[in-house]
Amino acid sequence: MKSSNRKVIISCAITGATHVPSMSEHLPLTPEQIAAQAIEAAAAGAAIIHLHARDPADGRPTPSPEIYRQFVPVIAAASDAVINITTGGSTKMSMTERLAFPMQAKPEMCSLNMGSMNFSIHDVASRISNWRYDWEEQYLAGMEDRVFRNTFKEIRQILLELGEDGTRFEFECYDVGQLYNLAYFADQGLVKPPFFIQAIFGILGGLGTDPENLTVMRTTADRLFGRENYEFSVLGAGRHQLPFVTMAAIMGGNVRVGLEDSIYLEKGVKAKTSAEQVRKIRRILEELSLEVATPDEARARLGLKGSDQVHF
């Protein structure tokens, strides 16, 4: 069993593809804003920076490699954090679009959703009365009738095409069944430990935010992989962000914060940057006598190829 006093890896997800600009004026939309927030989050203690791109004209999610290249090299030049590029994109993107930049960049790490699922925050649309851009309302409300698709064939494709160049993965698991999907690919020899499992709670369509579910995911991963073969990380969506990641750290896991997962710093107070959330969870961790891992310590534990092997 791993030592309970191992340093905690903080991941920070800067902007995502779920929240829309009308939900928070602080959500980074332009390459300059994304780069600035990522660099600040890394300086605050995030070892891993998880990135999506947005169209700077109106903030909509985009898979454009040209836009990614306006901020990813800037972050890489200003920080030694692990850069983690999404392969999820958004529920409206095709597989070809989602892989466009990762296939060019060959990053140290990419996120990988471990199955198809209903993924929605469509109820939020009814609570917004003033929209900044005309695409947002349809985008949010339309989630009720969209599925995030990642079939076994598509997951295999991502593992083979990106894994060939040494990219490793943040395996995003929204339910217990997705842990079994990961175990299937491990049995096929397509993925090897150490696995970086990101257990996700609070998204409609996935596991809810009952604390017992955290134990279920942890103990199921233990049975499937053996605790010595994986790193456990947790994100809680929305108001559940800090309670859930704190529980994860106490259980010997790692944590993820950032404006992709929650636009709030505390009840009724919006976070101005993702770095505010990083600083807050770092303070909580340190008050629990837990240390924070550096990027190079995270690289060593996750078996990453190193920042000198990417194509930014």
From TrEMBL:
Domain of life, per lineage: Bacteria
GO-annotated molecular function: 3-keto-5-aminohexanoate cleavage activity; metal ion binding
Key words, A-Z: Metal-binding, Transferase, Zinc
InterPro entries per record: Aldolase_TIM (IPR013785), BKACE (IPR008567)
Name of this chain's protein: Uncharacterized protein (DUF849 family)
Cofactor(s) the record lists: Zn(2+)
Keyword rRNA-binding: no
